[in-house]
Amino acid sequence: MEPGRLTPVEETSLLTVYARALDFDRPHPILGDEVARRVVDQVDYDFAGLGVLGSTERFVALRAKMLDDRIGAFVARHPDAVIVDLGAGLSSAASRVGPPSTVDWYSVDLPRVIALRNAVLQERASSHCIAASLADGRWVEAIPSGRPTFVVADGLFAFLTESSFRAVVDGIAEHFHSGVLAFYDYGRVSRLSRLPGRLPSKKRMARLLADAWAFDGFTDPRHLEGWNPRLRLIEDASALHEPEIAAFPSTWRMAARMSRRMPAIARKARVLMYAFGDADL
């Protein structure tokens, strides 16, 4: 299928699904997402031209696994849960987690991405797609608010402005009665560090990310608690401390060792989780 003309933010959905497909192709994958490989095979797009690095491929797979594990643990405690995947793109997380039919799974993304998703992915019976911009706060109205809710965002928030990010967080904390917000975070990312991606290159990945990136990030994970009093930090987990790092190139294994003594390195690749409401989560 031809994906049509996509904006840089929309195109990142192709980058991540391709990285997960490359991970699946490895003899010993981290995530093992067979659906990602089938999706890539269906889409008429120059994936190889993205120039996805081996380390990028592994990090995309590892962060998805970290988030999948946390969703699975939440569902085990709350078999009537609602899962909300923000910026879902072409993710097959629902298939990977395999929740019971009592769990409703909502995938939220921009209309053109959802149209592509509907064309290449077969959704489970209790899955729902919401085609909307997160800048329009009304997207949350389509999702039930009274059940335990796990809201997940895999790398999405870097592509929102700070004001939009804050509005999304406020909308989540105020709409849902209780639950968890979990997302992959890059720590503080300077604009200067993104400049090389804007230079001419045969590899589109760096340019794509530089064009899509909109938020400088934050260092202290408790920063979001200052945005909304209903949020409380419950986990700050660095991907560099996961056992799968042993399969990464030597430079990243060295960075992982250094991150034990230098927290600034660990913050560059982390999953943050915040609880809201007063339910037993």
TrEMBL record:
<keyword id="KW-0489">Methyltransferase</keyword>
<dbReference type="InterPro" id="IPR029063">
    <property type="entry name" value="SAM-dependent_MTases_sf"/>
</dbReference>
<protein>
    <submittedName>
        <fullName>Putative O-methyltransferase Omt</fullName>
    </submittedName>
</protein>
<dbReference type="GO" id="GO:0032259">
    <property type="term" value="P:methylation"/>
</dbReference>
<dbReference type="GO" id="GO:0008168">
    <property type="term" value="F:methyltransferase activity"/>
</dbReference>
<dbReference type="InterPro" id="IPR007213">
    <property type="entry name" value="Ppm1/Ppm2/Tcmp"/>
</dbReference>
<dbReference type="InterPro" id="IPR016874">
    <property type="entry name" value="TcmP-like"/>
</dbReference>
<keyword id="KW-0808">Transferase</keyword>
<dbReference type="Pfam" id="PF04072">
    <property type="entry name" value="LCM"/>
</dbReference>
